[in-house]
Ornithine carbamoyltransferase
Amino acid sequence: MPLATDDFLDIDDVTPAELDALLDRAAAMKAGETDPRLGDATLGMIFEKPSTRTRVSFETGMTRLGGHAMFLGPDDIQLGHGEPLRDTARVLGRYVDGVMARLFDHGDVEVLAEYADCPVINGLTDEAHPCQTLADLLTIRETVGEDATVAWVGDGNNVGQSFVVGAAMAGIDVRVATPAEYGMDPHVFDRAAEFGADVDPTTDPEAAVDGADIVYTDVWISMGQEDQRAEKLAAFEGFQVNQELLAGTDATVMHCLPAHRGEEVTDDVLESDRALVWDQAENRMHAQNALLVELLGGE
Ligand code: CP
Ligand code: NVA
C-alpha cells in the first residue's frame, strides 16, 4: 500500500496505520522475508551537515534495493555556491526519483518538497529527524515492545521532537525531562496529543526516569550550535545519563549517535548491556529501506 503522502518531512506526515505498516515492512525486510526492488531508481542526497549513519544507511540501502544513491555535499553542488534552493529542487526533480536532504532550516526542506517534482525525505533538520524515529520505533518493537515507557532526558532537540510525536503515534508512553530553557517546541506536545498522548514535560531527570523501560538521550550541542557550547554545558548539569541516574532501574538506553561520551552519556553506560544504540543504528537502514519502497514505489 503506497503512502498517502508524497514526502516524508516529519513522522506525522504518515498516519499511525501507515507507520505501523512501515515498521512491519521494515521488520520483514530485515528478516529477509521479502526482498522488494527499486529498479533503476536514483536517490539524490543533499547534505548541509556531516553524517555517518544517514549517509551510509541510505546509500547502502539504495544499493541493496537495486537502485543508486548520489551524495551531494555542500561543496559539490551549486546550492553551496549561491544557487537558490528552489532552482536546485526543480532541477533535481527532473533527474532523480527521490531526494533525501539534511539541512539546517526546516523551512528549507519544505521548500525542497514544494519545488522538487519527486518525493523528498527529511534526513534531519534543526527541528526534526523522522528517519531516526522510524529506526527508534523498530528498535523498541524488537526489544521492550510498544507498551514501553520511554524517558527522553536532555535537550529538547530535533531527534527528541520527532520521537515524542512518533512514540505517541505508536502508543508508547513518553516522559520528557529537559532544562527549562532547552525544552521542546510546545507544538510538539499538541501534535502528540492528537494521537492521544498527554506528555507533561519536567525539568527533573530522576522523576522522568523512575519506572521507565528505556532512557533516551542525544547530544547537548547539536550540529550548528557549537557557539552555544559553554552555556549549554552549564544548563545541562544533572541531565547526564550515567549509572547514578539509572541506579534502581532496569532501563535500557537509546541514543541516536553520534554520542559525546562524558557529556550527555557516560562511556560505561554506552559500553554496557543496557545500550540499544547499535541496533538503533542498524535499524536506520531497514526502516529507511521500507520507506524508500513505499515512497519511490518498489516492485
Ligand atoms: N543519527 C544520525 O543521524 O547519525 P548521523 O549524523 O551520523 O547521520
Ligand atoms: N541532535 C543532533 C542529532 C545528530 C544526528 C544534531 O542535530 O546534531
